[in-house]
Amino acid sequence: MTQKYITFIGDIHGCFFSFRSLLEKISQADNKIVLMGDIINKGKRSYETFSYVKKNKITQLIGNHEFLCKHRNHKWAKETWLNTGGTETIKSIKASLGVNSEKQIQEVLAEMSYFFDQALPYLIVDTQYGKKIVATHGGISNRIFRQNNYSLEFSLSIDLRIPGSYIFNKGDLAKIPGCIQVIGHQPTETNFINSNGNYRIDTGCVYTKRGMGVLTALRFNLHEEEPPTVFQQICID
User: Fold this and answer.
1) Which of 35, 61, 64, 196 is most exposed, with minimal Cβ within 10 Å?
2) What is d(CA 169, CA 137) in angstroms, rounded to the nearest whole number?
């Protein structure tokens, strides 16, 4: 028998203190914790977040920021990596470990990249009431679902580098029969988490925009069909 609950946590983006505080609100009993990706970049404490996730062996999906970190030395990714938060991650490495040389920093980034290689591209969870929870970082759009003959399997097999892939999608979310999509990536105000039966749980913890600045977790009961329980933590980083 599977565990009774599964809890998804939205994009942390180096907001380590907020992450730890949110975890304290969530019971670990009979519950699997899954991070939706983008645990690094933008915030002040990316290295601390990475270290905690690695040490505690918390399940993680790959986000676009981990994907860019892995490919940061490729010409197509380097500038984007640095300009979308990689610079802040490097600062956190320097501050946490007291390293300054480029060689030392690259060694740490290589360690992080190796860890991100083990992150899940997606997660499909069966419930006992017949529905599946499809967790990806950015979600499967209507266009991708249609172009792949309305096949979930085909939609999850596309090249992750394309803008519309399920780690980079910034658009709509397909209504997939028998499935509930849970995503991060797309910063969403806290009042709009429920998106036509799918869920967007990146509530912009790292941002100060109105309706954001919150880290959100969503706990599903896998044994009984009921609305998911929402846990939230205002950013304290």
Assistant:
1) 196
2) 9
